[in-house]
Amino acid sequence: MTGKTLEIFPDKAKLTSGIAGHFTLTVEDLLREKELVHVVLTGGTVGIALLREIDPENLLDWSRVHLWWGDERFVATGHADRNEGQATEALIHRLPIPASNVHRMPAAGSFTLDEAARAYQAELAAFTTDLNPIGAPSFDITFLGVGPDAHIASLFPGLDGVTVTDQPVIGVRNSPKPPAERVSLTLPVLNASQRGWIVAAGADKAEAVKLAVGPADASAAPVSAVHGQLETVLWLDTDAAALLSA
User: Residue-wise pLDDT tens for the chain (246 aa)?
Assistant: First the structure.
């Protein structure tokens, strides 16, 4: 586990372009070192904008990359709120990636919320490594957005999900941000990632970013509890970084 590094860009466009370029170089290096690379995607305005920038010329060997999600809105397949649908439109539809490498969280309609969490837990377990004892891959790169309230994935301040340590996936009820029901990875899985990359843009994220880099109660500011095993990077635009001291 390491300290947190700041990468600050002058605006959102340069932020997403800069992350995408670094992502491509990192995955290229990883594919030279290992057979498979596991990446966790995030939704949100910045997360989806970032996906549009990733590898537009398909330089990577996507047949050896597996894509996962940190959380998902528990709505029907095809619903506009689905993170995976937005990610497909922004990135996945143009990639030469096998369908079996894209690990979408279950949608409402065929599963109850708890069944969806258990199903994704089983999918994670098929790729479990000894680096993550609670039953999930040790992800190579985990992208996380952060809300103005300092939530990450669907782990919200004041809800019980932040404190869960014995399950890799949970169903979230009573989310303060609609839709009310979601599926989310838990902190032990997120923090077993080799690289935790938190992305934020805009002045409305500045307070959350300040909490992310300073000591804070994880129950009040879940983003403060995020750390990667090799690195934890906050990728920010200048507005999101406005409350950080020089």
Answer: 468 999 999 999 999 999 999 999 999 999 999 999 999 999 999 999 999 999 999 999 999 999 999 999 999 999 999 999 999 999 999 999 999 999 999 999 989 999 999 999 999 999 987 666 677 888 999 999 999 999 999 999 999 999 999 999 999 999 999 999 999 999 999 999 999 999 999 999 999 999 999 877 899 999 999 999 999 999 999 999 999 975
Mapping DSSP onto H, E and C, the string for 202-221 reads CHHHHHHHHHHHCCCCCCCC
β-strand pairing of 195-200 with 141-145: parallel
Q: Which of 12, 33, 5 lies closest to 196 in space, CA to CA?
A: 5
Residue 198, Cβ density class (10 Å: 0-12 exposed, 13-18 middle, ≥19 buried): buried
The model's pTM is 0.95
